[in-house]
Hints:
2 domains
Amino acid sequence: MKSPISIILAEDHLIVREGIRTLLEGEGDFTVVGEVTNGREAIKKVAELRPDVVVMDIALPLLNGIDACRQLHKAHRDCRVLMLSAHGDDAYVEGAIEAGAAGFVLKHAPGSALAHAIREVHEGRRFFSEAILQRYRDIHSGLHEGGDPKKRPALTPRESEVLQLIAEGKANKETAVELGISIKTVEKHRTNLMRKLNIHDTATLTRYAVGMGIVESRVQETTG
Length: 224
């Protein structure tokens, strides 16, 4: 008898996470071995539990799902990450694929689609819903409205982390504590990413982060 597929759920909304767990545990061939509410916890929990699959929401606090996926793909190549999102915008799809996600499922898809996707990625295949596949084709064929897909300037992983925390309203001191670095280093990263993005105030940085799928629009903008 085959061992059940071990899964970590990375989702910050409790009611959604409970629903997914109930759905998956009812399938019979899955076991949810861990649950986390942000990207940093996901990285730690994967290192601890070594699951077969991580079902990862994109809009996670502290470290978003795309950046967490990128780190997991580099550190744990045998762990398959399946992205889960309420949004299928270009930035989300492109970001997930570039980060090494094995699949992408929209939250409004039926539960059977999520279960099928988990089995597919566990077997070493990639799974993207038809709507996501079409969007990916459009991105690379230039057929989608607006021509070329949006591309993130080349931020370092640390700059990307700082960007997210700024967009979540964290002050430099809070960001320094969260990342375990000095305030001076935070300020340096902030200056560098503003230069790279040609953005010079916090409110515009926040709008950029929302537009690129780094944080959800529910994050309150700050001024500065």
